[in-house]
């Protein structure tokens, strides 16, 4: 075979290979546009294809996609995996495993609501992190939070929380069935306890409120059913950004307050009632950049929240 003939055959083979590559690229681009709602450029560069591969790889473990895929889909998926550099997928995995940056301060610590000073007492930290905003459905716990919220007229949360264990012991774990039956001697003993530091009128208020709770239990089945009915048995989820946005009371708190007073409760003004609602998780008032906001929202949206 002569040299010109060999050269011509080589050129023809090269041209044929280029035409096949163009045809494959055109075919791939055409069907990707048809199958996946992702905008593709005419160029099938490694950058555009690898970006597409990243968006699709998030669903690669979905068995339903595998079962319903056609041979064409499988070829496209395989082609994308071969083209896309594997290292491009690593940053996405790393980001999902990390704590959201917006929930951490500059020191890497978890962000809390702005009204929690860094030098706060550990009992206040624990209350914010473990209780405040967590939906409570137990009658004893609701009674306890209502009683402690009423004490905010004389003390702040830290001062009340430091007495919590003493209060639980004095009021029989805030069991309304027991507290409602307290006699004068027991009331006097609690009022004279300097460690608890509750005036006689405050102690009697808690005892009287326990009696009112028992009446509600007879009517509604539980105090929990009664109080949660005001929010349709689902916490009110607020998304406040700044402390100044958080109200001292709301129209809902005023409605509850009026009905409680009508039923004989004492020290249950709308401000106290709203503090109770916040503590008992009837309303979630953690600031949106507080790490507890998303956690309490998840608790509020659980399907078995009312159990």
From TrEMBL:
Residues given in the record as Zn(2+) binding sites: 113, 128, 286, 290
Keyword Disulfide bond: no
UniProt keyword Nucleus present: no
GO molecular function, one term: metal ion binding
Gene3D superfamilies, per database record: Hypothetical protein, domain 2
GO biological process per UniProt: base-excision repair
Keyword tags: Metal-binding, Zinc
Protein name: DNA-3-methyladenine glycosylase
Organism: Quillaja saponaria
